[in-house]
């Protein structure tokens, strides 16, 4: 496609006749230099509506004296205002749903932590009980063995 003539590059322009051809051409262009990083833009996460104007220059009163184009202007303003109100309502619903979700997650974590703490206390209590029983048995065995030694020692004298 490009040939050098006298230090200048000559390019031929090809026009895609179908969308498939256009896509093929774009892919060919991308694949010419695979080492070159491709920029992929991120989509906007949350769109924001334009704020309503602070003041409206065309204030409509009665329809007397209204020009023929004012109705279309009014329709546009009304449409934008309804779209803004709809967006605000949707955002409110979305925020309350997120808030409820986070609240529920926190409650679930708290409940899980309480259950875990209760079970942990029960395990530790059981472990302590077993340990104290074992110590009691060891002390009993030691007492028995020491009393036997004392008896043997007194017999030998």
Automatic annotation (TrEMBL):
Superkingdom of origin organism: Eukaryota
Gene Ontology molecular function terms on file: double-stranded RNA binding; protein kinase binding; protein kinase inhibitor activity
UniProt biased composition (Basic and acidic residues): 96-116
Bias (Acidic residues): 140-157
Region listing for Disordered, in residue ranges: 86-157
Regions crossing the membrane: none
Annotated Gene Ontology cellular component terms: nucleolus
Ranges annotated as biased composition (Basic residues): 117-134
PANTHER family: PRKR-INTERACTING PROTEIN 1 (PTHR13507)
Name of protein: PRKR-interacting protein 1
Native source species: Littorina saxatilis
Source organism phylogeny: Eukaryota, Metazoa, Spiralia, Lophotrochozoa, Mollusca
């Amino acid at each position: 496609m490009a040939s050098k003539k006298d230090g200048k590059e000559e390019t031929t322009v090809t026009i895609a006749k179908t969308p498939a051809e256009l896509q093929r051409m774009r892919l060919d262009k991308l694949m010419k230099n695979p080492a070159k990083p491709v920029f992929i833009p991120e989509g906007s996460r949350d769109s924001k509506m334009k704020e309503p104007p602070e003041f409206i220059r065309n204030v409509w009163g009665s329809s007397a004296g209204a020009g023929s184009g004012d109705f279309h202007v009014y329709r546009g303003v009304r449409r934008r205002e309804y779209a803004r109100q709809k967006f605000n309502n949707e955002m409110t619903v979305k925020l309350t749903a997120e808030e409820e979700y986070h609240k529920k997650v926190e409650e679930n974590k708290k409940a899980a932590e309480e259950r875990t703490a209760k079970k942990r206390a029960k395990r530790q209590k059981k472990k302590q009980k077993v340990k104290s029983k074992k110590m009691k048995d060891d002390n009993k065995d030691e007492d028995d063995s020491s009393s036997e030694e004392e008896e043997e020692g007194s017999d030998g004298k």
